[in-house]
Amino acid sequence: WGGLIPAVIRLHPEDVTALSEPKPVYVMLNRLSYLGSVADELLDYFRDLVPHCRTNEMWFDFESEPLNWQLPAGVLYDLCGGARASSTIPWPLTVHFQSFPFTRLVRGENEKSLESHFFHSLKQGLFLEHGSSTVAMSLEVADQERIWTAVRTANPLGYFTIERRLWKKQPHAVPVRLVIQGGVVVQPNLRFEASGPGFDISVGNLVSRHLTVDARALETKDVAVVCHGVNVSLDAPVYEVWAALAHPDRFLYIAVVNPG
Question: 15, 169, 235, 252: which has the fewest Cβ within 10 Å?
């Protein structure tokens, strides 16, 4: 919860209406939050320079590649090579207020859209974990507000107070999302039976089974498997990695990248 990514955000030249390019914004992004968490700050900063700026037109890119706002900031950073020793710090991002790439991204209207997306993902994760919608449907409005506030403000105590009631020691299925460069998400069906072989499946086997990545590429490190900025052992059981590194929406996000 304390993982932070230093980022520098510049306004795209097409959005600049002033005679000179505005100074960039320096922010610290929490790994578990989303790029949209800094939307209001950017709007306030650039509003006088970009009269047409609106939240529902805002999008980000890294090296001209649009970034999926529905993925946590830390996952996006890992996809952009953040785990490399040669990665650039602070993370250089560009913000746009026009020319939204509708063929690449789903547009979010405001922070409420981000909150709705998060809870849709959380309820899906709880359904997979418990095998029913009972736990997700039992979340009261006050609990949902506390969870979202905790995620938005990076407050682990506020989250774990409620999360204890959600966690299942022996899950029906482990919620996992494999994310490859370009932001493509693959969600494997990882159902477990008590004491069955599912509990022993390794990260390496999961990746090679569900992506077009063969075991040799993993063994020769032509492909890196990253969680929370750390290169994960390919022999690590998926269940144990999920139990330790799941995001607040209950999903384990595994970034599969070219190490460069």
Answer: 169
Which of 181, 226, 227 is CA-nearest to residue 65?
181
d(CA 252, CA 71): 12
Residue from 197, 198, 178 nearest 257 by CA: 178
List Cβ neighbours of 104 (8 Å cut-off, separation of 6 or more). Answer: 66
The answer to whether 173 touches 189, Cβ cutoff 8 Å, is yes
Longest CA pairwise span in the chain (Å):
67
Rounded to the nearest 10 degrees, the angle between the axes of helix 111-130 and helix 141-153 is: 110
Question: Tokens standing for 242?
Answer: 């999920």
pLDDT tens column, 75-128: 999 998 876 655 778 999 999 988 888 888 888 767 788 899 999 999 999 999
CB 218 within 8 A of CB 259: no
pLDDT grade for 55, boundaries at 50, 70 and 90: low
Structure-token match 């029913």, residue found: 132
State pLDDT tens for residues 2-54.
899 999 999 998 887 777 788 999 999 999 999 988 988 988 888 877 766 66
pTM: 0.89
Strand ranges of the sheet holding 176-180, from the earlier edge strand across to the other edge: 184-186, 176-180, 252-257, 224-227, 230-231
Sheet of 25-30: strands edge to edge? 25-30, 4-11, 91-96, 59-62, 65-66
